[in-house]
Structure formats: C-alpha cells, structure tokens
Design brief:
Layout: H1 15-32, H2 38-46, H3 51-72, H4 88-105, H5 109-117, H6 121-139, H7 141-149, H8 158-161, H9 166-190
Helix pairs in contact: 1-5, 2-4, 3-9, 5-6
Length: about 200
C-alpha cells in the first residue's frame, strides 16, 4: 500500500484488507465507466470510442500530479515507492500477446473480471483462455525463463531515461493528455456511433 506500511502508518496485517476494498472500488469504477463492454473497450483500436484512453489518461495524470505534489510537500517519499523492474524482451512479447488478446477478445485482464462479475459470457470465455495461458506459462516456466529474465533494465522511470526533471515530464504528459482528449473527441464526432 505504497509507503504506508514501510513507514509504520498502517500495519502490514491490513494489506489484504486494503487490497480487497480498493479492488472492489476499482471494479465498480470500471463497470460504471462502461468497461464491462467489449465493444467499448475495443472501440479504441477501431477508432469509434476513446473513453478507455481518456479514463486511463485521467488516472495516470491524476496519480502523477498527486504524487508529485505529495512528494513536494513531504507527505510521500517517492524513493520508497517500488518500481517494477523492466524486462525488455518479456515486455515486448507480453505486450504483443496482450494486445492481440485485447483486439480479438475485447477485454484486458482487469476489465474481463469486471465483466465476469456482471455475468457476461464472452468475458467468462476470455478469462478461461487467460487462465489456460497462465497455466501454460507456469508449467512451462523453465522453457520461458531465458526470455522472461532477458534484458533486465531494472526499475525504469521515463523522466530519468529522458534525462528531464520530473516536473517537466509531468507537465508534458498532462499536456499530451489534453491534446489527446481534444483529438479523440473530434474523431468520435466524425465516426459512426456503435450501440453497446
């Protein structure tokens, strides 16, 4: 739960409780945003609906600005935040597999469970296929291990890779999001609407 547990603000015993509550809230928000519809989710790839892009851009920008200000005011120490290591080869292969699955099935892993929760059969099939893929990867891990661990770049931060100050990157990313919102709104006006 971010820096709350390492700083002793929250006991580690509460970790799963917070994860459960936040997971329920996240699923509720996804469903309310329409992310239980595979047509809405796939719309971003086919160019008729960009709600997914706007919601995730909004979440990313809000988190970035919030954490930047929290760090500035000393409420959060960003050095204590865990950054998942980047395994470049595995990320590329996994991105291709997930992207193809997203286009073909209309769901990503999180939204598929959201749709399963409200009884969508296509999402159940998607989760079944995803589960089979997870089992194949788990059982065949010795075969995939070299690919999985190749090109470990460590915890990569984009603004450090670009060699720019954090605040300039946050500002640039927020401006990029605003531009994307304007462009996608114009595209949606010119594209035939799809019934969900």
């Amino acid at each position: 739960m971010g820096p709350l547990i390492p700083n002793g603000i929250v006991s580690g015993d509460w970790n799963l409780v917070f994860a459960f509550i936040l997971g329920l809230a996240f699923g509720f928000i996804l469903e309310q945003a329409g992310f239980s519809s595979s047509r809405k989710l796939a719309g971003v790839f086919y160019g008729y609906d960009f709600v997914v892009l706007r919601v995730f851009f909004t979440a990313a920008v809000t988190a970035m600005i919030g954490l930047t200000f929290f760090h500035y005011f000393g409420w959060v120490d960003l050095t204590q935040m865990y950054v998942v290591p980047t395994y470049l080869n595995a990320a590329i292969v996994g991105g291709i597999i997930m992207g193809l699955g997203f286009i073909l099935g209309g769901f990503c892993p999180g939204t598929s469970f959201c749709a399963v929760a409200i009884g969508k059969i296509d999402a159940m099939v998607f989760v079944g296929g995803m589960s089979i893929g997870i089992l194949i990867f788990g059982w065949g891990f010795p075969f995939f291990e070299k690919l999985y661990s190749a090109n470990n770049l460590g915890g990569v931060l984009v603004y450090e890779s670009l060699n720019v100050p954090r605040w300039i990157f946050v500002l640039g990313f927020a401006l990029m999001a605003l531009i994307a919102f304007v462009i996608t709104a114009r595209i949606e006006k010119n594209v035939k609407k799809v019934d969900y």
